[in-house]
Design brief:
Rossmann fold; 618 residues; elongated; Immunoglobulin-like; single chain; alpha+beta; six-stranded mixed β-sheet; disordered N terminus
């Protein structure tokens, strides 16, 4: 057996042993055709074989997924729309929607049955006990302690504490992550641990000089304008600040009261040259400062993106509805970092993670010249006005990143409101319905260019549409084998009920002692819908069967992956069509509550099936 490693945690200590059983098929293997030279190779080939190996599938590399949430006038998500109700545009050109699904919150799970002894796990008991509540929703609160000021972070922290103390129910698990990586708490339902983690939050800005001690004092936004966009207004504002506060030293000839006209003219020329030199020096100082601030800002943004990726990866390993709540004042995103933003969006969409954002600033205004916390010494009204304008623009850009992540993944954005506790209630709630539209852009160039997206309804009827705003074209094709491995692993670490293949899941458990138990997972696959490939007198297909065990808090415990190769003769296939194929997997665990995730995929049709089960071992 191949034990699975999951993308967001450590493998548990439980061992797993899987036994493959084929009901109604193995007994018929003696009905193969008689030995003849032309069919001897077929007879010598096993009809059923299994091995531990990763399965690979061909994938559509250009498929773009677009989550869409449609809400009525009261803000309630609706789920009665069909594919034909939507229109999707890529760079203004209508696209054919080739994939369409509706994700609904709160899918049901299958309870386990009790076996009276180890041997009885081969049977099917008539009744099943009710299972204790297990984790079904996972909400990861990511506090941006790098870009958020101390007053704003404390206000958001206290609101989150009140929110969690009142709203955390038996089926929801919460985690606390920070942009700095300090004080992280993994998923838990322990309110005391959550409270303690929140109370440890503090602003942890990167190492920079205190406000008012640098000259010129540039924001990341202004630095981007000066260095990347050659904005002359921003540069002149910085130059004026340098000349007013920290002018470069100048060397002028001594002046006399009885200077001749020629000497006066020479003095004026020297002063002009000195002024030009000072202007040039101030410009060089400003550009150097912009380059330095830009490097620091990009480092902070990349840090935020790295933490976002880690948070999405952790949520991807949570077997339930997944919500990431980003608590931040926002941050500036330069054009160079836009492709990385698209990668984060794609990662979240693939993992069915809804990103919601709460702007920790609440309701705010930009004070000309800075508020009480600012120690700038600039008094030139022109400089103050220009820098205030850039402050306003920067705030909008910072907010824009929060809104873009939300729109791309179907979350909620809370901003310009000081009721942060109510805001947490809004952003932590998953939309009841999320439509996922997929399309394959025609003649897509691998040039990394930005493609603006627009989703509309053919009959709007006063409904509000929230959808992904765009994506960046890839610069190279992904590796199909690696892409397939990722896809099937993501299916295991999910809770989506997939029904492309008829699949029955039965679970039983047996306690061998007070500290040990065995879980038997029985999966029956109906092969009538499989598309077998005929070759050399055989009906060929490959089944990849994955079973995973998750604990009470949704942490991965152990799992098994099996590749079953079907090379069935016609008589065997005829019997298999009636009886199906059953796979049994045994897991040795300790008593407790577990979620069982079963995923089956066959290669010829690239179809999948997935079921969720609950085992409660007292």
């Amino acid at each position: 057996m191949q034990a699975l490693a999951h993308p967001g945690g450590k493998r548990g200590k439980g061992s797993a042993v899987a036994a493959f059983v084929l009901f109604g098929v193995i007994a018929l293997r003696g009905q193969a055709p008689q030995n003849t030279p032309q069919n001897l190779p077929q007879q010598n080939t096993a009809e059923i074989s299994s091995r531990d190996a990763p399965a690979t599938f061909s994938t559509k590399v250009n498929l773009v997924m677009v989550p869409v949430v449609v809400r009525d006038g009261k803000g309630k998500a609706i789920g009665a729309l069909q594919k034909e109700d939507f229109q999707l545009f890529d760079k203004g050109k209508p696209q054919l929607i080739t994939r369409f699904s509706v994700e609904k919150a709160g899918e049901a799970v299958i309870p386990a049955e009790v076996a009276t002894d180890d041997a009885a796990t081969e049977k099917s008991p008539a009744s099943a006990p009710a299972a204790s509540p297990v984790a079904q929703r996972f909400v990861l609160y990511l506090f941006d302690d790098v870009h958020t000021t101390t007053p704003d972070l404390i206000q958001a922290r206290d609101a989150a504490d009140r929110h969690l103390s009142e709203s955390l129910d038996a089926t929801t698990r919460a985690a606390i992550f920070t942009a700095s990586g300090q004080g992280n708490l993994d998923f838990t339902d322990d309110r005391v641990k959550l409270h303690e983690a929140l109370m440890k939050l503090m602003a942890r800005p990167t190492l920079r000089a205190p406000s008012g001690t640098e000259c010129p004092e540039l924001s990341y936004y202004m630095a981007d304008l000066i260095h990347n966009k050659s904005d002359q207004n921003a540069l002149q504002a910085a130059v004026t600040e340098v000349l007013a506060i920290c002018p470069p030293p100048q060397t002028l000839p001594p002046t006399g009261t009885a200077a001749s006209p020629a000497a006066q003219k020479a003095l004026q020329q020297a002063e002009q040259q000195a002024a030009q030199q000072a202007q040039q020096q101030a410009q060089a100082i400003s550009q150097a400062a912009a380059s330095r601030v830009l490097a620091l800002g990009e480092r902070d943004t990349r840090l935020a993106f790295t933490v976002l990726e880690d948070a999405i990866r952790r949520l991807a390993a949570a077997p339930g509805a997944r919500t990431l709540v980003l608590v931040s004042s926002g941050f500036v995103l330069t054009d160079d970092l836009r492709p990385e933003e698209t990668d984060i969006m794609d990662r979240a969409i693939r993992a069915n993670v809804r990103i919601s954002s709460l702007n920790a600033r609440g309701l705010y205004v930009i004070v000309p010249g800075g508020d009480a916390s600012s120690s700038t010494l600039v008094t030139d009204p022109n400089v103050v006005n220009v820098k205030t304008q850039y402050q306003r623009e920067s705030a909008l850009v910072e907010e824009g990143v929060l809104a873009e992540l939300v729109d791309a993944t179907g979350g909620r954005y809370f901003h310009n409101n000081n009721d942060l506790k109510g805001g947490f209630t809004q952003v932590a709630a998953s939309p009841e319905f999320v439509y996922v539209l997929g399309f394959s852009p025609q003649n897509l160039k691998l040039d990394g260019a930005y493609h603006a997206l627009k989703v509309t309804l053919k009959m709007p009827r006063g409904l509000d549409v929230q959808a992904r705003r765009g994506y960046y074209a890839p610069q190279h094709l992904p590796d199909p084998e690696e892409d397939a491995k990722r896809e099937i692993q993501e299916a295991l670490f999910s809770r989506d009920e997939l029904q492309d293949i008829p699949l029955e899941l039965h679970m039983q458990f047996f306690k061998s002692s007070d500290a040990a138990a065995k879980i038997a997972v029985l999966a029956r696959v109906n092969v009538k819908t499989l598309h077998f490939r005929k070759a050399d007198g055989r009906n060929n297909d490959n089944l990849t069967i994955l079973s995973g065990v998750f604990d009470h808090n949704g942490n991965y415990v152990t799992g098994v992956q099996k590749l079953v190769e079907l090379r069935l003769l016609d008589p065997t296939l005829e019997k298999a069509l009636n009886s199906g194929i059953t796979v049994r997997t045994n897991f040795d665990v300790m008593p407790g509550s577990y979620v069982i995730r079963l995923v089956v995929r066959y290669s010829e049709g690239q179809a999948m099936a997935a079921r969720n089960g609950v085992v409660d071992i007292p």
